[in-house]
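Exam revision sheet. Question 4 asks you to relate a sequence to its structure. Input first:
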Amino acid sequence: MKNILVTGGAGFIGANLCEQLVAKDYTVTILDNLSPQIHGLSGSSLYKRVKNITNFIKGDICNKNDWEKALKGQDAVIHLAAETGTGQSMYKIAKYNHVNIVGTSHLLDLLANKKHNIKKVILASSRAIYGEGKYRCEKHGVVCPDARILENLKKRNFNLICNKCKLELQLLATDEKSKIHPSSIYGITKQQQEQMILLIGKSIGIPTVALRYQNVYGPGQSLKNPYTGILSIFSTRILNGNEIEIYEDGKESRDFVFIDDVIEATILALEKNQVNGEVINVGSGVPTTILKVAMTLKTLYNSNVNITVSNKYRLGDIRHNYADLTKIKNSLGFKPKYDFITGITKFVDWVKTQEIKEDKYESSVEELKQRGLIK
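Answer key, structure tokens:
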């Protein structure tokens, strides 16, 4: 495979991926609509970085003609373009479904019905499809609990409990065989993307892989978008001298995986055949609490902003989830190279070189409050 189409290739993950693909002598074509929420009105620095080293098509995955144009002469597709973020998906439901599901269906419709040279499709999926992660109950063994009960959240009981015995559950790493039960519209759309791509790929004989990315971060991620990327949100707050409000008790955790590790895993999935037709986790394999993220950023920026733990909660949020990396280590030989402190230090060093962006976080929170999604 020589010619690679990357949808969403001007975005954070996409731009870094395209640069590495070009460095490996692939011929890269980008299909990207340059969404203003991500790139601003004049185009982001990411777009400017990649437009001159790739064949750039400004187009929309929701437009079947743009797909048809972009697919000409391609050997593989890495499908990154999507609406992202759990909170916004809970009220922009039609948009998330249209972009993520209908947009992907156009690709599959063309692959099933038109002549093409596509030999592989890689999908950027998400840990959001799992909903809550995997746990152990002292009495009932391994469980994958459903979404937290609203009545418990109202009482500020944030931890997961066993549905049968009501004992508090102990967190485990989430493997690919864990229960799929997304707790947001975004997660549902990523699940459906996976199902469509794996099913159609199998039926028409095109190898497909769904990469379940954890929380990807690093230099280059958007500092404009207040709906995704908690490191960017907190950084923008700190650099504008605004306090950080942490929901729940601050002990909720995520798996933060550095961008360079994500790019390595994605290229391994493209070049190797061991995980064809399968789903695979991509993460650091380590849970990090949101309070630790905020405190680390405060220290690295040498800031004196207040950090408050509010005990508020957001509907659609999960308590914990971190990746079991056994499969990707055994099948692709992947092992993360960046621990959290190393990665976040590189991220902060990059942010310090950037123009301080307007803090739009409070307006995004107000949108969620108006819709009853923050309690």
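Marking note for examiners. DSSP finds 14 helices and 15 strands in the chain.
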